[in-house]
Amino acid sequence: MSWMKEDMLEVTRNLKLSGTVEGDAKHTLTMFYSHPTVIDSSGWVTTNSNGATTLAESAANKHVKFAIGGLKEGDIITKYRLLGGTTIGTATNTCAIVSGLYNVTKSAGAALVATSVGNTTTLTAASTTAIDLEADVTDTTVADDYQYFVLVKGTTMAGASAAITGVEVDIDRIV
């Protein structure tokens, strides 16, 4: 261990700074979300014993929402990933998964409007496959009074099902 200390001291002794350093320092975080809210009355099941949210076979246009919490005003959302898998019984069965990043804010009226702030990702599977959908976001800066979520819509045919294990969100945070 003494040789490591010696090398570190040598580098420190040779380090010289001059001039003015400007700008913000940022820290890139990946945040994980695995507790969704089922939007439609049937289709997605969140009580799966393996921790996944599953969509049964023969379900059409069923939605589940992953709320994105722990954000601070000024954070920059750069991308998100939807993770999971599909099970396809035969080659004639398919499963379609579509996801998008949205924000919503308070409103004086009863109707709140969710606005798409991220690219939508789509998977159409005709065979059993892992879901790893990544979408780049146009550097969405988190604003005060806004809530963010990833909305997932799934459609399965007979003999096909899907399971979502969660959402990962990459964030740049000014430190």
Give a description of the structure:
The structure is a single chain. With 175 residues, the protein is mainly beta. The protein has a single domain, classed as Jelly Rolls, CATH 2.60.120. The chain contains one helix and twelve strands; from the N terminus they run H-E-E-E-E-E-E-E-E-E-E-E-E. The chain has one helix spanning 2-14; strands at residues 26-33, 37-38, 44-45, 53-55, 62-68, 76-88, 95-105, 115-116, 121-125, 129-141, 146-156, 160-174. Strands 1, 3, 4, 6, 10 and 12 form a six-stranded antiparallel beta sheet that branches. Strands 2, 5, 7, 8, 9 and 11 form a six-stranded antiparallel beta sheet that branches. Mean pLDDT is 84; it is low at 1-12.
Topology:
Elements: H1 2-14, E1 26-33, E2 37-38, E3 44-45, E4 53-55, E5 62-68, E6 76-88, E7 95-105, E8 115-116, E9 121-125, E10 129-141, E11 146-156, E12 160-174
Antiparallel strand pairs: 1-12, 2-5, 3-4, 4-12, 5-11, 6-10, 6-12, 7-8, 7-9, 7-11
Gross morphology is globular
Measured as a percent range, the helix fraction is under 10%
Helix run count = 1
Taking Cα atoms only, what radius of gyration do you get, to the nearest Å? 22 Å
Instruction: State the end-to-end distance.
Output: 32 Å
CATH architectural name: Sandwich
β-strand percent reads: over 45%
Structural class: mainly beta
CATH C-level name: Mainly Beta
Largest sheet features: 6 strands, antiparallel
Name the average pLDDT. 84
Write the H/E string, N to C: HEEEEEEEEEEEE
* CATH overall fold name: Jelly Rolls
Give the count of structural domains: 1
